[in-house]
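Figure 2 data, in text form.
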Amino acid sequence: MQTITQQKREDQKISKIVDRVLTQVFGEEATHLIYRYLESNYAVKRNEIADKIDLFAKGLEDFLRTGAYVVERKILDDIYSSYGLLRRLEIERAKENDFASQVKLLMRKA
């Protein structure tokens, strides 16, 4: 069972990874547009991404359409890298296919 402090650290870690990937893929300005869209249409702030991963994923998919899949894969790859390859194998065995479910499972296992 995670303490509140551990959960906050995990949430921050996920949010930083998402922010880094969005910035790498789209640059600063477009990333700010994405965050603004998510906040105004889905009530998801930058620092709430881990807590509201389902809404984040839905908002990203609405904003980017089919392009969201590629961005989600990159985010997951970076999250897997930060948790280690063993976690990736656990997730793949668990057959959690959608982005939000995989992130949630990773956060629970951390």
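Caption note: The radius of gyration is 13 Å.
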